[in-house]
Amino acid sequence: MYQILLVDDDRMISHLMRRYLEKNDFSVSLAHDIRSALSSLDQAWPDLALVDIMLPDGSGLELIHQLRQVQGIPVIMMTARGGIEDKSTAFRRGADDYVVKPFDPNELVLRVQAVIRRIHETETGVRDPRLSQESLTLGRQGTVRLVLDPDTMTVQLEDQPVELPRREFQLLYLLAANAGQTLTREQITDHIWGLDFDGEPRVVDLYIDRLRKRLAVDRGTPCDWSIRTVRGLGYRLEVAT
């Protein structure tokens, strides 16, 4: 779950945005001035910060340097000032995006997802399924079809439902979302179990073995996708083209 730091002295807006973000599986911490925002970094390291420009103890532009340039935290500015000069200044200071109040909370959620997706994929090269809600279909017409629906966390194999525990579904969806790309065990545990996972990366092998057994099909049925072991590295879901 991604952690968002929301810095705004308008408590009503802050609590409203927290509800919308939490509905979309983000964890949100609130700060109402620059001092408390910087202090909160000692407790939790956010994946992204939403910062209002007008804060009681200074300009949010002053906070950008600390969050973006020094700490490496992406920042989306929120402000009622929508002039081109204001936007230009914010982007020059390091803002990753800029929204003007009043805004649609759903739009802000989409912007948060877009910034995290862009930065995450740039840094890791791995598509993060936590930011994707699209159904995936593997297999061409006339072959074994596998359909994954992240909204309902359901799997259809040859038009028959397959019951998967949550972790196994997340692992399968991660592999499918990055089809053709080898994922290391460490990348998989980071995405499925979280960056603070302190267990043995080989737990991935156990889950892969379970997935293969649950998804086993009649060998006489054409199947143009498979979960491959990449020796010494990890796993890759291959799909024939």
What secondary-structure arrangement, pairings included, does this model have?
Layout: E1 2-7, H1 11-23, E2 26-31, H2 34-40, E3 48-52, E4 54-55, E5 58-59, H3 60-70, E6 75-79, H4 84-93, E7 97-100, H5 105-124, E8 136-138, E9 146-149, E10 154-157, E11 160-162, H6 166-177, E12 183-184, H7 185-192, H8 203-214, E13 225-230, E14 234-239
Helix pairs in contact: 6-8
Produce a short descriptive summary.
This protein folds into two domains: 2-124, Response regulator (Rossmann fold), CATH 3.40.50; 129-239, Arc Repressor Mutant, subunit A (Orthogonal Bundle), CATH 1.10.10.
CATH topology of the largest domain: Rossmann fold
The assigned CATH architecture of the largest domain is 3-Layer(aba) Sandwich
Shape: elongated
**How far is the first residue's CA from the last residue's CA?**
33 Å
Arrangement of strands in the largest sheet: 2-1-3-6-7
| Beta-strand content estimate | 15-25%
Mean pLDDT: 84
Helical percentage? 25-40%
- Uncertain runs are none
CATH homologous superfamily (4th level) name of the largest domain = Response regulator
The ordered string of helix (H) and strand (E) elements is EHEHEEEHEHEHEEEEHEHHEE
- Look at the helices and sheets and give the structural class: alpha/beta
- Please tally the β strands and state the result: 14
CATH class of the largest domain: Alpha Beta
Radius of gyration: 21 Å
Please, how many domains? Answer: 2
Largest sheet: 5 strands, parallel
Tally of helical runs:
8
